[in-house]
Amino acid sequence: MAGCTAVSPPAAGAPVNATEGSVTRSQPTPARTLSQPPSTQPRESQSATPNPVPSLSAVGTQVPEPSPSPNPPSWPSPVVGLEPSPAFVLQVPILMYHRIVPADLAGDSLPGLVVSPELFDAQLAALQAAGWHTVTLAQISQALQLGTALPPRTFAISIDDGWDDGYTYALPILQRHGFHATYYVIAGRVGTWKNVLTPAELKALAAAGMEIGDHTLDHVGLPYLSPVGLHVQIATSADVLAGFVGKRPATFAYPSGRYDLAAEEAVQADGFGMAVIEGWGAWESAANRFAVPRVRVSPSTTPVGLVGMLQRLEPGS
Ligand SMILES: [Zn+2]
Fold it and tell me: Which helix (H) or strand (E) holds 303?
């Protein structure tokens, strides 16, 4: 089963999708205009139970406060109309995470998608010590479009589904190791679901050099959608996220890694430079830039094992 199936207590009345183990809404998402992002509400009002206050003492980290006036997002936008050279290939490993949170705070998320902050910290420490450094997915996309080679031991970190532990736990750990990540956010859940990144947290992530990528409006399977449905899930969600952070996403992640040719074409037509799935390999090219593989990192991925995995994925490393 492909990734992106983390679940959380949904809004009242939302059924569980038994096929994917994920949660979908029972009612269609209200239409939104491009200039009017979804209304947000105080997080305290989203749940009868307050969000737990995470303790990062185990990894020696303090949770930063979202900055009210952060720096603008810095990820590069795709170059409109520029097709990558068919002969140019990058082989940058891309890791796929979902939740960086203690297991007892992970709610109903599938255990295989939950990596503890301590393990995440140890994984990144091992990669840093082995000489690896990060780029964002938008930077890979730009390098592919421009035909720019990237240095050896370059890799990317992606974190799917927009849970707030990406801010409270993952961000300080990323910053400690000098790494940047791409967060694939489900736009329709921001301000709607509990334990999901708030607009202020999204802005703070972007200001910290993280990339905010598009992971649809509602995390629905794209292969079954009409052209209009595809556009809403791909482009309207991007505009909603742009309303939150001030810059349109440059890259896209298919929910559960499910896509077809129509979805690929819609992603390209809606202005993205690259889209990602789950799969073994490190290969970015003109031929597959709208279905680029990412390697899942699980709670059983040891730091040593992760370093070895990247070494196997990168030729000559
Ligand atoms: Zn997902």
Answer: helix 303-313
Q: How far apart are CA 224 and CA 222, in angstroms?
A: 5
Name which of 55, 126, 53 is nearest 297 in CA terms.
126
The mean of the pLDDT values for the chain is 84
Residues within 5 A (CB) of ion ligand 1: 4, 160-161
Distance 23 CA to ligand 1 centre (A): 11
Q: How far apart are CA 15 and CA 190, in angstroms?
A: 19
Residues 97, 98, 102: CA angle, nearest 5 degrees:
105
pLDDT of the residue at 289: 97
Distance 255 CA to ligand 1 centre (A): 5
Domains of the chain with CATH codes: 89-313 (3.20.20.370)
Which amino acid is present at 315?
P
| Residue 133 in tokens | 């450094």
Q: Which of 47-56, 195-204, 235-244 has the lowest mean pLDDT?
A: 47-56
Is the model's pLDDT at 250 over the cut of 80?
yes
Q: What is the model's pLDDT at position 224?
A: 85
Q: Six-digit token pair at 253? A: 């992640």
Residue 291's CB: how many other CB atoms inside 10 A?
A: 19
pTM for the whole thing?
A: 0.81
Helix, strand, or coil here: 11?
coil
